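Illustration: L-ribulose-5-phosphate 4-epimerase.
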Amino acid sequence: MSALHLNDFSASAREAIASAREAVAALHAELPRNDLVAWTAGNVSARVDLDEGAEQAAAHASENVSGDISGLFVIKPSGVSYDELNAANMVVCTLDGVKVDDDTSIGLSPSSDTAAHAYVYRHMRHVGGVVHTHSSYATSWAARGEAIPCVLTMMADEFGGDIPVGPFALIGDDSIGRGIVETLRASRSKAVLMDRHGPFTIGADAKEAVKAAVLCEEVARTVHFARAYGEPQRIAQHQIDALYARYQNVYGQKDNT
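Result:
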């Protein structure tokens, strides 16, 4: 089987990949900055869409490569310190999780969660970024296998309701990815707490997925503290719907050009 190399792609595709590597490397700094990870745990990835010409060029250059090269994604290398992460050592993978060779990440394997990220990208076309952390409060909810109830307007705004729990799954294949997709397809949430594992978040791009990870930990922490003083009251569904619609469609600065 021929290996797929970065040079097999068009100049425009390589430019898009380089941009994604820069963005993903920078966004990884947000995880320790926001106390979402310890040591080398956690990961951020970003989808790189390819135009038809780039796909055909890559397929022609490596005709014996199996798998999905309709797009790529960029993810951190496995077990590398956050202090050592940079654009050059971000790993490029196909949508089947197969590493694309290049001259700067030689000898580096992609994150152990690569199969999960790949499954999400293959099955949720609207997702452009995926984040996984082991943030303390969100992971404590996951350890109990308990959804975070929507008792805060911030939760209604960002997640559209409760933050759900996904099934328990072993690391190493696409079982985690299947659990993420199955759970989030039944929810408006951008976050899922994988049972006895931790939170995964999605977004239209990697920055949005990182934001969701930060806010997931924030609401997990706040609701945890609230429960120490009694059971917080869940927001009524019609109010959740109204808050979510306002935040998604009205909040923030809009491009009026």
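Reading the tokens back as a structure: The chain has one domain: 6-249.
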